[in-house]
Amino acid sequence: MEHAEFNKDLLKFLDSSPTPWHAVSTMKDRLDAAGFVELDEKDDWSLASAQGYYVIRNGSSIVAFRTGQRDVTTSGIRMVGAHTDSPCLKVKPNPEVRRKGFFQLGVEVYGGVLLNPWFDRDLSLAGRVTVLDEAGEVRDSLINFRKPVAFIPSLAIHLDREANSNRTVNPQTDLPPVLMQVPEGDSTSFADLLRQQIATESGLKVRKVLGYELSFYDAREASFVGLRDEFIASARLDNLLSCYIGLQSLLTASRDEAALLVCNDHEEVGSMSAEGAQGPFLSSVLDRWCGAGRARAIARSMMISADNAHGIHPNYMDRHDENHGPLLNQGPVIKINHNQRYATNSRSAAVYRHISDELGLPHQSFVVRSDMGCGSTIGPITAGNLGVTTLDIGVPQFGMHSIRELIGTEDGYTLFRVLTEFMQREQVL
Length: 429
Hints:
The protein is of the alpha/beta class and about 425 residues long. The protein has two domains: about 5-85 and about 235-425, Zn peptidases (Aminopeptidase, 3-Layer(aba) Sandwich); about 90-220, Aminopeptidase i, Domain 2. It is about 25% helix and about 25% strand. It has a nine-stranded mixed β-sheet, with helices on both faces. A six-stranded antiparallel β-sheet has the order 8-7-10-5-6-9. A five-stranded mixed β-sheet has the order 11-12-20-19-15, with no helix packed on it. Its EC number is 3.4.11.-.
């Protein structure tokens, strides 16, 4: 895949993946098209050599892998990890709010959301709805309104003279989006709106809405930005960018070596779930693939945890260590923290640097300022669960956890090229 094609396809992937369920569905379609075979955790597995497989849990996490030509216990596995979720506003179970003829929905803040950018945006709504259909069966249905359906209006500065100097956001009272105006006495429920949307999208006739997991998102599509188109702006770059890079690397790499991609849900809230990185999902897949030889396979394996990094912001340069300020379009960032907020060690970093140098590609390093706290990733969690040598790396970006984020057009493709080579290397450790 060439550079320009890679970025154009990335934009399509981002736009088709407004929620973790849609992201996994998009990845499933691409894996199916590439000849990968879906596995069901309830069934027996019979795995062939040099074949691609994938497993989905909860519809929002996925493990995809190629078995390779050799015995996995002696070849090891080249693993890449990312996460499907992003900070957002999720609809509450009993969300309807009617005030002065406005129909609004109560929302819950998911993850470490940068709240101010959510105001005055065209918002759409997507996610998973669990319903009882006309045949009396409980079914899941994905919905995506696709068009702007909601708005969170700011309070005018005339009514809040300190808005530019002392503004705070109360998530309970300030964030319910406005969806429409309704006449007095209107009894339209949110469940009614969901039933109508499901019928429109899939033709499914719903007897009752039993539950849902729905998120508001920025309705504006991903786009190239800059006088020379050197940036990409989009929602959910953290961390759908890494999901896309990992997927394209797995699909592009040769079938000779055992390689795996895991994209977990719930990283933004700690990863403790059945399908999160602290849960047993990946470990269960490896048990069934490797059997009694799992420990030997892990000892020969390496995990690259890909999650975006903080690029040095030209307006806030003092927020970075003076020797570790990653620049956009100057290469992926090796993330290091000796307190194990990142899982990188000198050996795993060396593996990446060596491959990158062989390909003539740039790379950078990041260490958080010693007087600031450090975020984390699925890297240390996965390393601790599996006992696998792990590297934390990511594309540098601006506006992390905002409703719209910014990356350079060069860095994603650079990481794709290195991960593709990593996944097809005969020996990585």
